[in-house]
Every structure is written in C-alpha cells, then in structure tokens.
Amino acid sequence: MSASVLFERRGNLALVTVNNPPVNALGQSVREGLLEAFRAAEADAQVEAVVLLCTGSTFMAGADIKEFGKPPQAPSLPEVVNAIEACAKPSVAVIHGSALGGGLEVALACHYRIARNDARVGLPEVKLGLLPGAGGTQRLPRLAGVAKALEMIVGGAPISATEAQRHGILDELFDGDLLAAGSAFAQRLLAEGRGVRRSGEQPVADAGEAAALLDAKRAEIHQRMPGLFSPLRCVAALEAAVQLPLAEGLERERELFRECLASPQRAALVHAFFAERQAGKVVGLAADTPTRAIASAAVIGGGTMGVGIALCFANAGIPVKLLEIDQTALERALQRARDTYAASVKRGSLSEADMARRLALLDGVTDYAALAEADVVVEAVFENLEVKRQVFERLDAVCKPGAILASNTSSLDLDAIAAFTARPQDVVGLHFFSPANVMRLLEVVRGAQTSDTVLATAMALGKRLKKVAVVVGVCDGFVGNRMVFQYGRESEFLLEEGATPEQVDGALRAFGMAMGPCAMRDLSGLDIGLAIRNRQRQSLPPQFPLPRVLDKLCEAGLLGQKSGAGFYRYPEGSRTPQPNPALAPLLEAASRERGIARRSLDDRYIVERCLFALVNEGAKILEEGIAQRASDIDLIYLNGYGFPAHRGGPMFHADQLGLDKVLARIREFHAEHGAWWQPAPLLERLAAEGRQFSDWEAGQ
Ligand code: COA
Fold first, then answer.
1. What residue owns the CA closest to ligand 1's atom 16?
2. Residue 310: inside a domain, yes or no?
3. Is 279 in the pocket of ligand 1 (CB under 6 A)?
4. How many domains, in total, are found in the chain?
5. What is the Cβ-side half-sphere exposure of residue 391, based on CA atoms within 13 angstroms?
6. Residue 285 belongs to some domain of the structure
7. Which of 8, 135, 235, 626 has a beta carbon 3.0–4.6 Å from 473's, enabling a disulfide?
8. Atom nearest to 65 CA in ligand 1
9. 474, 501, 522: which is the final residue of a domain?
10. CB of residue 63 inside a 6 A radius of ligand 1
C-alpha cells in the first residue's frame, strides 16, 4: 500500500489515515492509497465501517496543485471519490484544519462527516481558475442547496465548521482527539443501525428556485468579474447538478473542469499562488535563521500612512505606540484611527468588541522616551532625508539594543538612513502601501548592512500582519514605484500623442487592471510628484523627455478628485468619473508644445506601450538584483497595483506572450520613441536564448 495512506483494522473499524505533509495534498500516491484502502475495507469481512482521517496540521487541503498542467496519472481523483461513495460500508470523514478543494470532495463522498470545532471547509478552486472537478459541484448542492453551493463555489472562500454544519455539510462537531471522535461516531452509527448514506443520491433541496439563483449569479459575474473564465463554468456545472442525473452531471462537470484546466487563466492563477509561497524564501537566508520576538511596536508620524501602519499592528494584536510631535497632532491622529474602525463597525466588518480591543492596544505618545522598550519602530514621517536623519538619530539614542528600526520611505536611500544610526544592521525598510491597513503588499527593503536576523524577523512580522511581504533591494522607488513610474509616463505620452483618458483607462481596464492610470492619478492628486518631476526635468539628459500633460492640468487648477476635476469631472463630491470637457484644449496644447500631431491610437497599442514599459524596467530590476526573482515582481504588481491575478503579473504575462515577441515590440517602440525604450540587456539575453523570466533567479 502507498506510504502516504495507512490502513489499519481495529476491531470492527477500518482506520484510513492520510499522511502526506505538509498539507496532505491529494497527489498520485494519496489517490492510489485511498483507492486501495477503501478496497481493503470492503474486502475485509470484519470491517463494518471506515474512519478516514489525516495526520499533521490539516485534513486534505486539495488536489496537488503542482500536478496541474502535467500529464494525468491514474487513478484520477473522480475515480477515487466515486469509489469512496460507492463503498458498501458506511464511512466517516474526520476533519481538522482545512478540508479544501479535492479534500472536501473526498469528504463529501464519505457517507458522514464530522469536524473539529476550529476546522474550515471550502471549495477554493475558482481562485486557481478552476472548478471542483471531483464531484464537488454535484454533491455540495445536494447537501447544502444551490444558493449556498453557488456562494461557496463561485466565491471560493472557506466557511467555518459551525456554518458548514448549519448548511448540512457536516453532521457533527467535536473537540479533542480525531481518532477517538471518529471511532465513537462510527460505533454510534453502527449501534443505531444507520448505514450507507450517499450524498450523490440525494435530490437538490432548492431545485425549484435554482433557475433564478443561477441567472442572478451569472448576471453578478458579468458585472463584477468580467473576463474571468472559470466562474461562469462553475455556474454551468451547478446547473448540471440541478438538471441532470448524477452520472451525467459528473460527466458535464469533468468537461467543464478540463476547459478550465487548459485555460491560460488557470496557469496564471496557479503561478500567483506559488509566487506568494516562494516570496517567503529569501535568497542567501537559511530557512532556520533566528528571528527576534516582536511583542510591542511603535510608529512615528500620525499621517494617513502612520495611522494605517499602527492599525496593522493593533489588528494583529500587537500593542503599538503612535508618536506625534504635539498633543494636537496626536489627537488628530488618534481620531483618524477611531474613525477608521468606526467605519468598519458601521459596514459590519468589525464588531464593537473587536474595535474596543484594538483601540486599547493603541497608545498615543509625544515623547521619544516612551519608545525605549519597543521591539520594532516604524518611521512614517515626511519624505525628506533631513527629517529622517532627525528621527533616526533620536531612535538610535532612545531605543533598546536589538530593537528593529524600520523606515517606511518609498523613495529615499535606505542605506543613507541606516547610516544616521550606530546600528545599521538593525535598520530595514518596511514600505507599506496606502491605505496601509487595507493593502496587502509590503516591500521589505534589505539595506546593504541589514542583518539576516533583522530581515528574517521583518519577513515573519509581515506574515503576522497578514501582508504579502516581498524582499527588495535599495534603489529609487524600489520595485513597485520604480516600475509604475515607467507605466505612468507612457500613459501620459499616449495622451499627448492622441488618446483620451477614457480610451487609455478603458483599454487597460479591458485588459483587467482594477483601475485605469488616469482615474488613479485623479484619485491620488495630479500635483503629487510635481516637485519630483521638476527636479527630474533638470537632471535627466535631453533624450529622456517627460510628458507635460500633468503640468498643464495642474496649471489649470485641475488637481483630480480633490478639486472636483482632473482628467475627469467629479460633480458634487462624487467619485464616479465623468468626461471633462475642459480637457481637450489642454491635451492639444500639450501635444503642440511637444510638436506632436495627434493621431488615433488603438487599444492594443495602448496596452502594449504601458505594459511593456513595466516589463522592460522589471528586467532591469531583476538583473540588478533589486528583486530576487520574476515572480516577486509579479506579486508586487498583483497586490499593490491592481494587476489582474488571472494574468499572473507583468513578468509572467511577458513569459506567456514570448520574450522574443515582447522584445520585438520594445525595439519598435525604441525606434519610434527613443531612449526610454532602450531594451533591457537581460530581456535581450533571455529572448536570444529562448528562455523566460521565470527561469532566472538572482545570482545566475
Ligand atoms: N498542492 C500542493 N502544494 C500545496 C497545496 C496544494 N493543494 N497547498 C499548499 N501547498 C504547499 C505550499 O506550496 C507550501 O509549500 P512550501 O512550504 O514548499 O512553500 C506548503 O504547502 C504550505 O502551504 P502554506 O500556504 O504556506 O501554508 P499555510 O499553513 O499558510 O496554509 C492552506 C495552508 C492549506 C490553508 C493553504 O496552503 C491553501 O490554501 N492551500 C491551497 C488550497 C487549495 O486551493 N486547494 C484546492 C486545490 S484545487
């Protein structure tokens, strides 16, 4: 029998134990082992019932994602699941941790299901561009109804054991030992004469309302997830559960599953899943690098950013001191924190009790001496090196030895900041994205002298704060902002060449970006970065011109949402962009000044100009070792810049298109638009060798 599945007969029970660390994924050996174990149980005359459970921290967390896209290996999961359901002896799945995807499908095929109180169950396949392909779309609606199945399968979020029991997915909850609970439940079944009970044989409870539910979900998908491949197929599979007998429904589910498996969106979403896990592995840092304990924190600066960061600590249960220069500024900052929580309570996403608990962890102070015992201090003051110097010199004077001194700078030289202290090894960048309490991305900036322990602690802290933490090196703008500068510049050039904001934003939204660059500019304020642009104009050589369109708008008082108009108009404080009739003459003036005859540009050209600017800069960032690997760059763009997950990130997207094709376009743009488009040497090298960004890791 397979080493990943243990079979043991104890009295009248067969105990089937899956043991495939770390998450008991249903790889080939587990599938084979399950099939053999259930056959053995069936064949053993002394076995009256089967108890299925898992070792380690979780029940089966799904199919083995690493097998997707590779040649299938028998037995298939549907075959295993169908055999489990067909077994002539009653079976009980004993769930702890997470029963996800294929794991839940196996449990649904068992005749009874019990779970530890703290377990979760779900069908998250849609998040990987798939649908449950081993009966989940057919069995779940039979147990829980179409409405709940639609919510779980199209939404993909796991639910608690309590909720699952309420919806008929679980029979009982328990606390304590898995084997004891499973055996007791099985003996009770036998004593009460309750035998085999197949969920696949039950009718769909709310079949009468199904048509309306399915239609409503389709409409919602068209509205909220346009362009996504798998959600509509999830609905189609559920429709089959309502309309067809089980065997035919399973066939239809398999067909739809195969379509999803072959889709490029599935490949992109699986890439994003592994990118997130890979980012935690830091090149040159041993997995067992010791970390420092973080039991308390402090944040300097109570602006939007500082308060957002302080909330992140409070949300994670870490006591945090928020320092402002005087009582008035401090009161304003604390009020902002209270308002943010109050808004969450009003929306229903936070309870009053949790708000009170979190606010109690937040302590406003005005004296640096109060930071003496903090384990980590994050500076979020004005972006000016002289101001940072004052802050870090004081921190160096008051903080205890071993405290981590972090800067939230988004553009200044972290090594220069570290040099303001006598302990540069304890200085690290923690670049949060605004609003810091909402955005998942955290760039962890590794300075030239940042110690391994400090870096490892910063990464572990990121995880505790529920952030996607990505290590980056020191350079202007780090990874995210350095690349987005190129993207923004191209979008502005396009406006000067003939496109309208509606066209630029529309083309990029159709590609999948959460927001177009012009609407994004309006949101952040067109005057942001004006001073930087002016400085750059002085310092950049003449072959690197900058667009003028933003300056033109600012001169005309169009600053974006905050002034009621920018690229778009926002009547009476509305946040919905409307066309701005004042814009056309300004765009024409900007074109004239640069000596450009406006022309019509198509959507594909717009998307290529903006995205390939990202890719070319990303290649330079990789070669310089500022990012460790291409998937880290993708992760930054997916979590900080609204890049569509189903495209996998800019570098993955370029790999999919083929680097030779991307390079050919970049060469054309270089010929057409000059020095900004000088192809990155790494891109040229990889394209010539027929390789991909994903083949490349720092140091190769
Ligand atoms: N197949 C293969 N590997 C998997 C996996 C799966 N279904 N689920 C997790 N892993 C791997 C991860 O890649 C990681 O490997 P690494 O240590 O080599 O990087 C390891 O298991 C631990 O996963 P991680 O996510 O870091 O652990 P966690 O404790 O934070 O979360 C889960 C555990 C199960 C909640 C989470 O891994 C998860 O959601 N997995 C995917 C579930 C899913 O989508 N199933 C449906 C598949 S169709």
1. 277
2. yes
3. no
4. 3
5. 29
6. no
7. 626
8. 1
9. 474
10. yes
